[in-house]
Amino acid sequence: MESDEFVILIVALGVALFATPFALGWLLHRLFLKSNAAAGVPIIAVCASMVWIGFVLRYYADPSVDWIYATFYFIIGLAIVVGPGFWAPRCYGLRVSVDVFQRKNMAVAIVVGAFAFTTAMIYGGSLWGEADPVGDDEGGWWIPLGFFSAAWVVLVLIVALYLRGERFSLRTRLVQDRSLGEARAASSYLLSTGIVLTDAVAGDFWGWWQGMLGLVTVALMMFTHELFRRSMPAILTTVEARSYGWLAGRHFESLAYLCFGIAFWILQFAMRVWTEIPMR
Question: What contacts 24+ positions apart, CB below 8 Å, involve 133-139?
Answer without folding.
Answer: 133/204, 138/62, 138/64, 139/62, 139/64
